[in-house]
Amino acid sequence: MRVSRTSIMFSNLCALLLFILCSVFGDEMKSVSVTEGDSFTLNTDIKVQSKDMLLWMFGRQETRIAEIYNQNIFMYESNESFGDRLQMDNQTGSLTIRNIRTEHSGLYKLLILSNRENSYKRFSVIVYARLPVPVITANSSKCSSSGSLGQNCSLWCSVVNVSAVTLSWYKGNSLLSSISVSDLSISLSLPLEVEYQEKNTYSCVINNPIRNQTTHLNITQLCHTCAGMSVVMLVFFTDLKGLKCTLMSPCSVSFLRLCSVLWFY
Fold first, then answer.
1. Collapsing DSSP states into helix, strand and coil, what is residue 260?
2. Neighbours of 159 (CB within 10 A)
3. Ramachandran angles phi, psi of 198, nearest 5°
4. Residue 15: is its pLDDT beyond 90?
5. Are 93 and 44 in contact (CB under 8 A)?
6. Exposed end of the chain (fewer CB within 10 Å): N or C?
7. Same domain as 184, residue 72
8. Span of 72-76, 147-151, 186-190, 232-236 with lowest mean pLDDT
């Protein structure tokens, strides 16, 4: 059953009673972290009896959002951000939030009034946005040229519209560099330089306290020489006491270290 803002389920006197009860009885705090779009449940860990009253409130203003009284469930419309996402279990009073959004982060309070005892519980809920997959790109303006050997490949790992995350480069399992952002929704980029034909494994990782996303670097695919720089080299030397050296290989100039040197009589 939904109740409008004009509901007088609790009078001002009852509201005062709630304040007194919340001040007198001890409370417990539980921290919950969840990813945006998921569904999760705030468990009461009790079994509701016929005369029990359970009231769920949200935020600093303690806005009423759901209630059980005389075994009847009431869903308040005072906080429109929840829409039809809320569901309350009539056996336990546990509150389920479906398809949760980041704006649902905050403090949830539960007041339990019964013939057995009165209690007060609090839940601190943090909703993290879903993590994007990091994108690795190469700086094409810095490709290998014919005059350089072992030149580095310049790379960037980027993510857009993120908050409360850390972006990191890893070489194997070793952290190379990282950058973090707190509450602002911004774009992040982190540079890295590797050598052409390097055999080490690199990965870019974005993470928050509950999840991570990883993109592995494919050096062969992203790091390559400038177009049109592939050559065939044939060099002769005849001044070494009758020995002749031939350097020959159809290879890119950035891979000269791989070219073979053959000595023969």
1. strand
2. 22
3. -70, 145
4. no
5. yes
6. C
7. no
8. 232-236
154 vs 182, residue with greater confidence: 154
If asked whether residues 99 and 194 sit together in one domain, one would say no
CA–CA gap between residue 200 and residue 219 (Å, rounded)? 9
Question: Which residues form the domain of 251?
Answer: 230-264
**Res 17: pLDDT:** 52
Torsion sign (Cα): 180, 184, 189, 191 = negative
Indicate if 235 and 216 belong to the same structural domain.
no
What average pLDDT does the chain have?
78
Residue 231 pLDDT grade (very low, low, confident, very high; cuts 50, 70, 90): very low
User: Could you give the dihedral angle defined by the CA atoms of residues 244, 249, 254 and 257, in that order, rounded to the nearest 10 degrees?
Assistant: -50
Domain shared by 171 and 116, yes or no: no
User: DSSP characters for 49-107?
Assistant: -TT-EEEEEETTTTEEEEEEETTEEEEE-S-GGGTT-EEE-TTT--EEESS--GGG-EE
- CATH at residue 173: 2.60.40.10
CA separation for the pair 117, 143 (Å, rounded): 73
Strand duo 72-76 + 2-3: pairing: parallel
The single-letter DSSP state of residue 257 is G
Whole-number pLDDT of residue 1: 54
165 and 240, same domain (yes or no): no
Asked whether residue 78 falls in the same domain as residue 103, the answer is: yes
> Which of 110, 128, 146 corresponds to the end of one domain?
128
Based on the structure, what is the number of domains in the chain?
A: 3
Distances (CA, A) of 262 to 75, 156, 167, 243, 246: 85, 40, 48, 11, 6
Query: Are residues 91 and 59 part of one domain?
Result: yes
Write down which residue in 94, 128, 162 finishes a domain: 128
User: How much is the average pLDDT of 230-259?
Assistant: 40
Are residues 8 and 119 located together in one domain of the fold? yes
